[in-house]
Write a structure and sequence with these properties.
binds magnesium ion, Helicase, Ruva Protein, domain 3, 3 domains, alpha/beta, Rossmann fold, binds adenosine-5'-triphosphate, about 375 residues, about 10% strand, five-stranded parallel sheet
């Protein structure tokens, strides 16, 4: 296994049973034209799976187009997907191909499908059923031959319950559902992936790696990785950047995980595929909760102290008066968004919930501020 191959695709690495089964399912569904819904937590590898399905399909030499449904403003999503006719709306100075047309003959991957507006879902269902659609501002029926893959980290059943997602579309999409388990439920993959990201980073940056202790490695394997493989990759790179002048120890790992703003430890969190609640695990959990409580108290004390010194505190983001006066409103928002990005490891849904904004609005903001390139990378 060698991860990124010369032609740029990421090999689906892993040795755990779920990943072995995943590869098998991919092999079975890839040659067909069946629509596949890929689900799993953020950073678990949904896009990697979609690309692998395309690569192993008969459409491999045709386009593979990824559309991030959550990143496109609602007002232009139909024109982006289906194209538009010149003059169909203010600003439509030329006719434009939509993503479906651009993907003709190949595969379209609709990421964050749960973000598709309801009225667009109707049109999408039609294209799924018979490949037919109409460009915005044109009544002529067009036809495409596109294989559709979709992904979401949202619970679509919940979306249906709150009338944000069409039930008929859901059943059409989930005829084949590939679920990628979170990394903490397939711990056997952690060392393989860590090793791969490590070697890749060392090679690219000419680092003279001095090794990592067994303790440190065990800590990495038993950590909960809420941001999954994306988090593991970012963590590996920052760990090597900061500590490559010596052998990496357990404390370096802990420090680095704290800097990433993540929770601490979690040796097999309760309810996540653990091997039972033995005494040791209960003890760990009690210690963990105790530590979290202490950190909460510390945070609150810090906040009080900062407020007392008349600084503005944004949930931990403190800016002294002097600096504040030099900032524009945009700078402030950028700081604010960047803070939450780190805190929630780029999990847009979580940040959106916290800030009471829609995922779509938030995506746009991150993109506008150059904090995110629209493909989930920081
Ligand atoms: N099995 C794997 N082997 C190697 N790299 C992987 C694997 N799974 C994921 N990755 C890497 O982890 C990162 C995140 O993967 P990906 O973008 O596919 O996640 P995602 O589920 O689409 O996340 P999101 O929900 O945030 O869009 C990428 O850098 C990807 O290359
Ligand atoms: Mg993705």
């Amino acid at each position: 296994m060698n991860g990124n191959t010369e032609n740029g695709y990421t090999e689906l690495l892993g040795i755990s049973i779920p990943v072995v089964e995943l590869r098998q399912i991919i092999k079975q569904v890839a040659p067909t034209d069946v629509t596949v819904l890929i689900t799993g937590e953020s950073g678990s590898g949904k896009e990697v799976v979609a690309k692998e399905i395309h690569r192993l399909s008969k459409r491999y030499d045709k386009p593979f187009i990824t559309v991030n449904c959550g990143a496109i403003p609602e007002g232009i999503i139909e024109s982006e997907l289906f194209g538009h006719q010149k003059g169909s709306f203010t600003g439509a100075i030329e006719s434009r191909k939509g993503y479906f047309e651009a993907a003709n003959g190949g595969t379209i991957f609709l990421d964050e499908i749960g973000e598709l507006p309801l009225q667009t879902q109707v049109k999408f269902l039609r294209i799924l059923e018979n490949g037919e659609y109409m460009r915005v501002g044109n009544n002529k029926t067009e036809h495409v031959d596109v294989r559709v893959l979709a992904a979401t980290n949202k619970n679509l059943e919940h979306q249906i319950a709150i009338k944000a997602f069409r039930e008929d579309l859901y059943y059409r999409l989930r005829s084949i559902n590939i679920y990628i388990p979170p990394l903490r439920e397939r711990k056997e993959d952690i060392a393989v992936l860590f090793d791969y990201f490590l070697k890749q980073f060392i090679q690219r940056n000419g680092i003279d790696f001095k090794g990592i202790s067994e303790d440190a490695m065990n800590y990495i394997i038993n950590y909960s990785w809420p941001g999954n493989i994306r988090q593991l990759k970012n963590f590996t790179e920052s760990l090597l950047t900061l500590y490559s002048n010596k052998k990496i120890e357990r404390d370096d790992v802990i420090r680095q995980l704290n800097i990433q703003g993540t929770e601490i430890i979690l040796p097999v969190p309760a309810g996540f595929g653990g091997k039972g609640q033995d005494e040791k695990q209960l003890l760990f959990r009690a210690l963990y909760e105790l530590k979290t409580d202490i950190m909460d108290i510390k945070q609150q004390l810090d906040n009080i102290e900062k407020q007392e010194s008349q600084n503005i505190v944004f949930d931990g983001l403190a800016i002294p008066d002097k600096e504040l006066e030099l900032l524009t409103y945009d700078d402030l928002e950028r700081h604010f968004l960047s803070y939450y990005w780190k805190k929630y490891h780029g999990d847009i849904s979580k940040i959106a919930r916290k800030l009471k904004l829609s995922n779509r609005t938030l995506y746009r903001k991150y993109k506008d501020y150059g904090l995110k390139n629209g493909r989930g990378e920081y």
